[in-house]
């Protein structure tokens, strides 16, 4: 298993540029081993994107080194993989919390009998956001985080809950036939 290791140092100011760099690395799924040192699985796409970041770091009057590396042994490799899966699990855990909030919101609308098309549209938009978020996490889940199947299952439950609510909205407006 091969990784790309990026080490970098950028000026502390302007902090917005430093933060933007950090966000771009995180959006690729990079895991920080320590401050200014991150790792990604080696893929052609990651090589291309890190080369672009290398130029951006130089533009910021920073410096970086980009290396292809392998773990010294299986135990070290497992440590790196665990870092990736832990980060994805954290993201899936947050998504699961939002799924719970989504279901609670629908339950509230049902209990107050708020069966409006506007509310249904809002709930559909919220579910789409959850699905898009799941897809982003999944794209960065390089090693199959344990919470991935549960997150997918909960999203399906959210969809089923929304479908049931939609039927209630249609029934309330006598448009189900």
Automatic annotation (TrEMBL):
The ChrB N-terminal domain, residue ranges: 18-175
Pfam families reported for this sequence: ChrB_N
InterPro entries: ChrB_N (IPR046858)
Domain of life: Bacteria
The name this protein goes by in its record: ChrB domain-containing protein
Protein source organism: Alcaligenes aquatilis
Species lineage: Bacteria, Pseudomonadati, Pseudomonadota, Betaproteobacteria, Burkholderiales
């Amino acid at each position: 298993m091969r990784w790309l290791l990026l080490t970098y140092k950028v000026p502390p100011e302007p902090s917005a540029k430093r933060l933007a760099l950090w966000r771009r690395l995180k959006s690729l799924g990079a895991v920080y081993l320590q401050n200014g040192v991150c790792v990604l699985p080696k893929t052609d796409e990651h090589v291309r994107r890190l080369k672009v970041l290398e130029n951006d770091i130089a533009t910021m009057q920073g410096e970086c080194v980009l290396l292809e590396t392998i773990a010294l042994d299986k135990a070290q490799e497992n440590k790196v993989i665990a870092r990736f899966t832990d980060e994805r699990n954290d993201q899936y855990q947050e998504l699961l919390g939002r799924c719970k909030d989504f279901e609670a919101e629908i339950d509230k609308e049902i209990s107050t009998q708020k069966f409006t098309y506007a509310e249904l549209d809002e709930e559909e938009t919220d579910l789409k956001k959850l699905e898009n978020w799941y897809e982003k996490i999944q794209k960065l889940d390089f090693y199959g985080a344990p919470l991935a199947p549960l997150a997918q299952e909960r999203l399906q439950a959210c969809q089923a809950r929304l479908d049931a609510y939609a039927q209630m909205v249609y029934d309330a407006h006598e448009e189900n036939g």
